[in-house]
Write a structure and sequence with these properties.
alpha/beta; two-stranded parallel sheet; 6 helices; 11 strands
């Protein structure tokens, strides 16, 4: 199997019935990645979570965002059969958000306020921020945030940057989708209000 076929098979989304590939295949795919991926800046994340242009199935609408929670990947479909794939962190098992939404709001250096549910679950960590935290480099939402809405209502789920880039590739959050700040800035600049987001 040549390099192009390996990369395409790794990128094909399993929700369409494409079988999951083995860990060994994943390693070979990363090793065969295009030179621009191999020479990318070394973020504190595994190389398979670096931004990578991949081939996806034709059913996916250009402009949409697809998130595979169990694979820790976000796909931004940039044209027919092509997407930029980013590594993400997602919610812990009981907090994973799934379903369809749309980008209802975009904010640079967003402020942050824990939800009442977060404070109830872990008052020691969140109660002191009950009145909110202004945006900035120490804010847990990072450099950018895309606010997900359903039927015109805020879901309290965001695609956002993070002060903990090492969390990418793990289920650690309170439900939101975390990205490396550099990556969420790139996505933010490409995604308009109203973009469809589907989380599996």
């Amino acid at each position: 199997m040549d390099r192009r076929t390996l990369v395409a098979s790794f990128a094909a989304l399993p929700i369409l019935g494409v079988p999951a590939i083995s860990r060994a295949q994943t390693v070979r795919t990363v090793a065969a990645a295009p030179p621009e991926v191999e020479t990318a800046p070394k973020w504190p994340i595994a190389p398979q979570y670096y931004p990578t242009k991949v081939t996806v199935r034709p059913e996916y609408e250009p402009g949409s965002i697809i998130i595979l929670s169990d694979r820790f990947f976000l796909y931004h479909v940039i044209e027919k059969r092509k997407a930029m794939r980013y590594g993400v962190a997602v919610g812990r098992a009981e907090l994973v958000f799934r379903g369809e939404a749309e980008v209802g709001r975009k904010v640079e250096w967003p402020s942050w306020k824990p939800t009442p549910e977060m404070i109830q679950r872990n008052p020691g960590a969140y109660a002191r921020y009950a009145d909110g935290m202004p945006g900035g480099p120490k804010n847990p939402l990072g450099a950018r945030a895309l606010y997900l809405y359903q039927n015109g209502r805020d879901t309290a789920i965001r695609i956002h940057g993070t002060t903990e880039p090492q969390s990418i590739g793990h289920a650690v959050s309170n439900g939101c989708i975390r990205m490396v700040n550099d990556h969420v800035i790139a996505l933010f600049d490409q995604v308009p209000i109203g973009t469809k987001v589907t989380v599996y």
